[in-house]
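Figure 2 data, in text form.
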Amino acid sequence: MNIIETKIPGVVIIEPRIFEDARGYFFESFNQREFEEKVGPVCFVQDNESKSSYGVVRGLHFQKGEHAQSKLVRVVKGAVLDVAVDIRKGLPTFGQWVSVELTEENHRQFFIPRGFAHGFSVLSETAVFQYKCDNFYAPQSEGAIAWDDPDLNIDWRIPADKIILSAKDAKHPLLRNLV
């Protein structure tokens, strides 16, 4: 696997080695030993999958305290813009965000460590999105930031009139109100 550093230390893009021939392709989507050697020690305990339509924005979600989660995310069908926002108070990167386009063609993965809010927008007709978490979901510890926080100014690459949100995601607070 090839590791691409982002502007925020610890948040990385992972490109697998893909072996293609006339039959199709093969790649190793996860290898614990290689991941730990190149990214660091993480023990994933839960895998999740979602399917969404064009224009859906999910996020920006996080888990607080002892239930915080690192995530390793990827797209198996379609394309998304994936976003990680640093919510670690007191660090120089607090409030900064990075994004990457994840597609079924590029097979990229995005590693988001604990201390980040996470979200994505669906750029294709539909997208199937998978992610590994290193901590179990705890509803009492969930938190979120408004997807359209003006201080973050994230370009979700979807026209505003085409964005589809859950009722819950339409009501999250601004990052500055979490501090």
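Caption note: Helices lie at 32-38.
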